[in-house]
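Holo model, zinc ion. Inputs:
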Amino acid sequence: MGYLALYRLFRPTTFEEVIGQDSVTTALKNQVTHGTISHAYLFCGTRGTGKTTCARIFARAINCEHPVGGSPCGKCPTCLKLAEPTNMDIIEIDAASNNRVDEIRELRENVKYPPVNGKYKVYIIDEVHMLTDSAFNALLKTLEEPPSYVVFIMGTTEVHKLPATILSRCMRFDFKLVGQQELESLLQKIFDKQKVFYEKEALSLIARLGEGSVRDTLSIADTCVAYADGKLTYEQVLKAVGSMDRKDMDLLVSHILSGDIKGIFEDVSHIASMGKSFSVVNKEVAQYFRDMAVIHTCEDFAKILSYPKEILDHIEKTAKTYPISTILSGLKTFASLEQEFRYSENPRILFEVTALKVATAHQTTLDELEKRVTTLEQKIRDMVKP
Ligand SMILES: [Zn+2]
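Output:
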């Protein structure tokens, strides 16, 4: 099967096509309909949640001659002109690569010229938190007294890095992570349109791996579709994204939970020989512990987890062998490690030490229990002594 750039195929041109951001799109549509346009907007949120997409739609909508329900019509002369890449009225700046004061000064010069086609000249500044301090100061001067035809839409993944002086001048919108269900229905729609055949579980797995980002989900889907031969299966998705083999995973988790130190050393050595990333392995182990916690606590776990039956049976068997307290403490340890992998020079050792820590923590509890039982037994013996 040939390569499909799914992310390029899915480019919403109206607010209705944007998924998972209803509160933001409703508010923006209302502003277009009522003509209450601010001069500066701030779109905050994780990567791939639709900030730039919404900025582009909004930029066209406020210029459109006959907006349809707050979205650009896509047909009027202004919409057609603004769709051309050479248009001078919607200017996109990536602050990650244009973060110097000179570039913002150039922007300030440029702001003086009114729009050519529509009513507004829109500046979309991505990753605005990357600007240097002097660039922020230069930008602030423009934000203080912008010409009536200028609108700034600034996007950021790290809003805490923005100076208060900028924040106070913007209307802020928070983009949330897109839900699993919404990502699944998007994938389903795209796969059906592209005539990609797939297992339902494969689709759920891709959506889960996307972790709330439309961009990541579609880029993982791209990799998987390029990898798949015929029908896209759950196993193929695992292989395409370099996940661990399920049998190896079952074994590793069992060794950790049963406190089998030798087993853990052997598993880690096997994983290393397969060239897997330990940061990914750690994430998958954490996911496994989370799944076991779900099995312990939720009656409809099969529906929540959405695994092929064979895989679910294995996780369920392991989960039911151990108490929830042991599983939760393992989950806590592995999940809290994710950040540390970023700075670790030796991820293998980091993972190994953590696995041993979880394995032996559980062991300590057993030792303690044994001690308490022995004490109790002694007390009972003392009591029944004649
Ligand atoms: Zn239009």
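The domain at 246-370 is CATH 1.20.272.10 (Zinc Finger, Delta Prime; domain 3). Residues 64-66, 72-73, 75-76, 78-79 surround zinc ion (CB under 6 Å).
Archived with the compound record.
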